[in-house]
Structure formats: structure tokens, C-alpha cells
Write a structure and sequence with these properties.
Layout: H1 4-18, H2 28-35, H3 39-51, E1 55-58, E2 64-67, H4 76-84, H5 111-129, E3 139-141, E4 152-154, H6 156-161
Antiparallel strand pairs: 1-2, 3-4
Helix pairs in contact: 1-2, 1-3, 1-4
Length: 171
């Protein structure tokens, strides 16, 4: 599951992407109000994005924030890695923050490890293939009773229209 920090960061970055090329910085209060993000928390997150070269900042009355790179150059995968550290769901499935799992059998015998590598690679393929500039397909309620009323998934037709098998990127 994505952390609140990661979700806030992505929403703030999408807000800046929507205003990319507008010629003036976007004020913190506008982002905080429009995206329902606590201003102090938003300041910390945007400072982190600035340190990584994704956001530009200017102080003062006419100051604010803007994307330092074009929206099509910033992937969801990059944002998740910057805020979460890894796309892997287990420490043994991370490419950039690898750790062997405590209290586990050897990795060559662990079927869960192999499944989590596949999940990580598919997650990376999708998230690295989508940028802040990309339109994301609509989602529809899934009729799967196992997932409950809040279960949502991308409609099959939307997945093929998105060119799912043609998205670039790896973990």
C-alpha cells in the first residue's frame, strides 16, 4: 500500500503538472487547499522534490513552486521510489533497497520471493511507463464479490486502449 506521504506527493506533483508552463509559480496555499494536504507537510514534501531536482522554488510574495522538469519526464515510479524507497513489497524483492528477509528460508527455495519479484517488475513496468503528463484510463467498479463494494480495477478495454503491453520501463 502507498503511504500517505507518497499519495500527497503524487497529488501535489500532478497539481504542478496541470499548471506546467503557466509562467508563474504556484503558491503553496493553492496546492494545499486544492489537494487537501496539510501545508506544513506539503512544504516538507516539496522541499524533498526540490532537492531531487523535480521542483523549482522561489521565496517571497510572488514565490511558489513549479515543475523543474517537464511532466512527461517525471514518472509515477520515480515519485514512489523517492517517497517510499522501493517498489518491492518485501525487502528481498527490492532492486534498490535489497535486504534478505528475516526468519525466511533461502531465497532460491522461497516461492513467495519469486512471486514478489514478478509483482515488483510488473509494478515498475506500469509506474515507470506512466508520466505526470499521461492521461490515466477511467476505472470502473469491479463486480468481484471477494473485493467488496470498494474494489476497483481498470476496465479491460481501457487497459488495452492504454497499450498496456507496450509501456516502457523496468524496475
Amino acid at each position: 500500500m502507498l503511504s500517505q506521504r507518497t499519495r500527497y506527493t503524487i497529488r501535489a506533483m500532478l497539481h504542478l503538472a496541470d499548471r506546467y508552463g503557466g509562467g508563474r509559480p504556484v503558491q503553496l496555499s493553492e496546492i494545499a487547499e486544492a489537494q487537501n494536504i496539510p501545508p506544513k507537510f506539503l512544504t516538507v514534501m516539496l522541499s524533498q522534490m526540490s532537492r531531487h531536482g523535480l521542483v523549482g522554488t522561489r521565496r517571497g510574495r510572488d514565490g511558489g513552486y513549479w515543475l523543474a522538469r517537464a511532466p512527461q519526464e517525471i514518472s509515477y515510479g520515480e515519485l514512489v521510489r523517492l517517497t517510499r524507497g522501493s517498489l518491492g513489497l518485501l525487502p528481498c524483492a527490492s532492486r534498490h533497497a535489497y535486504e534478505s528477509c528475516k526468519h525466511c528460508i533461502s531465497e532460491d527455495k522461497c516461492r513467495l520471493h519469486r512471486v514478489m519479484l514478478m509483482v515488483r517488475d510488473e509494478t515498475a513496468r506500469i509506474l515507470d511507463g506512466l508520466s505526470l503528463a499521461d492521461a490515466v484510463p477511467d476505472i470502473a467498479l469491479d463486480d468481484d464479490p471477494e473485493r467488496g463494494a470498494s474494489g476497483r480495477s481498470v476496465v479491460h478495454a481501457d487497459r488495452s486502449a492504454m497499450g498496456e503491453n507496450e509501456l516502457p520501463g523496468q524496475a
